[in-house]
Amino acid sequence: xxxxxxxxxxxxxxxxxxxxxxxxxxxxxxxxxxxxxxxxxxxxxxxxxxxxxxxxxxxxxxxxxxxxxxxxxxx
Length: 75
Description:
about 80 residues; two-stranded antiparallel ribbon; 5 strands
């Protein structure tokens, strides 16, 4: 299993879109993406040019999106 690196929100959103997620709406500084089948909703914090911390990124990728770290890195 690979390791996650800090990434800007823009890059995380691009990778999630490649994985089949699409934007549904934005509320404040949080962007919501939904999987194609509608079973998963992912929340990505979009705070200017700051990178997303490792713990938050792990939560987004593994717990919310249901992807493995290696799958996410390959996108």
